[in-house]
Amino acid sequence: MTQDAASAPQCLRVCKHHQEDLVCYLLDRGIPFTTWIPSSIPFIPPYPSGPPPPSIHSIGLGCCDMSYKPDAVDYMAYQEQRDVFFHHPHAHTALLRGGIVWCVAMQSISQDAVLVGPTYQVFTHGQAFQTSDGTYWWDDDLSEDELNLIYGVYKVFTDMSWWPKSAIWQRGNLDVGYWSHACKEWFQNWLTHILNGSTNVRSAKKWGSSLVLLKKQGKLATKNAKLVERYILHKE
Fold first, then answer.
1. SS3 107
2. How far apart are CA 10 and CA 181, in angstroms?
3. pLDDT tens digit string along 33-51?
């Protein structure tokens, strides 16, 4: 299931018969989608009464001093820790998120992991919603700490990361609903700067300002999505 209105007509036009073809189409283009399965097991929020207790199995790159500047060696250490996490069964859901999370995950996770659907960990590492008939629909999910590891976040006075968080990426003008040629060029250019030591981690504020690149492209994508949504609702 995709929630992007502009992607729906593409999917119907290209993949009319086989579900596997549709999944491959979405994965190849970095279009966000979900793979819900029905169950009678209810969804219980993990810590409904407050923040989760500290865990001895914490995940992430930890904290560093404000004066510390991670370099290419730190980036390689981040890649190694990130790739260890990507071996967890439910980590394949990073490919379903599209955008920057999809692009980072594509470096390490096979698309075949998505084709089998939600994993056996879906009831412990997943999310769910309930329909009017009482059925719960489940899919694998990622925690905030897991996402921060994918972004390459270091805890300083504020979060500093190798890659922008999804919310920041989606506000930027490069996000047009799929991974475009401009996105590919941006990603490879930034990765090259990281590896040759000519750039460093950024704060959310700096990521936000740096991703305002192609204003007309972002406005066009937003307008297109609204027009397609209006068309679909009118057809119904």
1. coil
2. 18
3. 888 889 888 876 654 444 4
Place of tokens 């922008």: 164
Distance CA 164, CA 74 (A): 17
Quote the crossing angle between the two packed helices 181-195 and 72-85, to the nearest 10°. Answer: 120
User: What tokens does 31 get?
Assistant: 């279009």
- The pTM assigned to this predicted structure is 0.78
Q: How far apart are CA 124 and CA 46, in angstroms?
A: 9
Tens-digit pLDDT profile for residues 101-154:
999 999 999 888 888 888 888 988 888 888 888 899 999 999 999 999 999 999
Residues in the chain: 236
Distance CA 15, CA 2 (A): 14
CA angle 135, 136, 138 (to 5 degrees): 145
Packed helices 19-29 and 7-14: angle between N→C axes, nearest 10 degrees? 130
* Residues 219 and 178 sit within 8 Å (Cβ to Cβ): no
The neighbouring-strand residues paired with 137 are 38, 129
Shortest CA distance to 93 belongs to which of 32, 177, 21?
A: 32
- What is the gyration radius of the CA atoms in the chain, in angstroms? 19
DSSP 6-25: THHHHHHHH-SS-HHHHHHH
